[in-house]
Amino acid sequence: METTNNKNLATFTHLSTLSQYCIPFGNYIFPLLIWSTNKEKSEFIDFNGKQVLNFQLSMFLYSLVLAVIAIPILIVTFFSHVPSETFFNDGDFMRNHFSLENITGIAVVAIVAILVFVGLKVAEFFLIIYAAVKASNGEHYKYPFTIPFIK
Question: pTM of the entire structure?
Fold first, then answer.
């Protein structure tokens, strides 16, 4: 049976990842600080800290892969349909050079990668809340699709 203090620390470890919306890399810094200072005190805190950090590292890896897919494709697609002189001479190049006809199949892959990234971030937010609720109830929760970097 876990103490209330251990449940609260585990819950706060999960919720501290939401600091990523205010502080850059807060989703790594704060859980790491909480976990590293309290992992010897409780197996429950140790388990939850590892889960949080593994999940955040997995989300970073998935986001990085999606960015590597989407960004170069969008840049190449953008510059292949717009002549370079329109950037300097044509003030209305967006209306003149972009249309649905210029969207290629590879651009669709980039758009899908962006949509997957958005879905990933939305799922991440709700999974963090769900894991925090489970931790506050004293239950062990493993995030889905998490790569076990820290064992």
Answer: 0.83
